[in-house]
Amino acid sequence: MKIIKVKDYNELSDLTSKIIIKEIAKKSNLVISLPTGKSPLGTYKNLIKEYKKGKVDFSRIKTFNLDEYYPVKKNDIKSYRYYMFNNLFNKINIKKENIHLLDGTTKSPIKECKYYEEKIRKNPIDLQILGIGVNGHIGFNEPGSEKNSKTRLVNLAPETVKRNKYLGKALTMGIYTILKSKKIILLASGKEKAVAVKDLILGDVDKNLPASFLRESKNITLIIDKQAASLL
Ligand code: PGA
Asked: What would the pLDDT profile of 148-186 be if each residue is shown by its tens digit?
């Protein structure tokens, strides 16, 4: 596991957006898996800025999103679909047909998750960007998730329900699915992530801290700021 320590959230966002732009420059049809939440917002802002300056072309990339609430209406402002279009997709030249999101309106979550896995199998993820939950979750792989888990419907952990103010369930890419990505970048910023980061780096690989499974992957880079690294 490679660890890059940066000063703060701005530096973390700068570095992450630069990495993404560099990867797209190397491979114009890059397949990227994207998270939601606070961690990637600065990165998305930078990507939009650089796109406007003509420094990056998203017309051939494909994206998969990590997770989605369930059930959730397409235009619900809580939905991750809304977040992605509002914070990134509507502001860059990505093609609609290259955007893959888990469907929070599906009547058949099992079918939807199988279909998503199949699409990822056909379009292997080159670059996976992840945040980490205060409880060590990645995507909505909450504590207790198995290393061999695939995309599925899950219950949210009580602390996630409280933090995200969402009472339902979620669809999430599984840990196995995430680990198959060629490159993984995990972002952690702020004091509230310090315990999870400490456990991730210094603790055991344990399903009670799902992010710890990433330690077994050679291609993981952890980008953490000073506050997130404060307990190391
Ligand atoms: P955050 O969420 O980026 O909003 O901190 C990360 C997560 O809970 O996975």
From this structure: 999 999 999 999 999 999 999 999 999 999 999 999 999
Active centre residues (catalytic) = 67, 135, 137, 142
> 66-80 in b/e burial notation, b at 16+ Cβ within 10 A?
bbbbbbbeeeeeebb
Ligand 1 midpoint to CA 138 (Å): 8
Rounded to 5 degrees, what are φ and ψ at 84?
Answer: -65, -40
Tokens linked to 141: 């792989």
Spell out which residues line ligand 1, taking CB within 6 angstroms.
Answer: 37-39, 131-133, 137
Tell the residue number behind the tokens 């939905």, with chain if given. 79
- The 10 Å CB-count burial string (b at 16+, else e) for 181-192 is bebbbbbbbbee
Q: Are 203 and 209 in contact (CB under 8 A)?
A: yes
Answer yes or no: pTM beyond 0.90.
Answer: yes
* Nearest atom within ligand 1 for CA of residue 39: 3
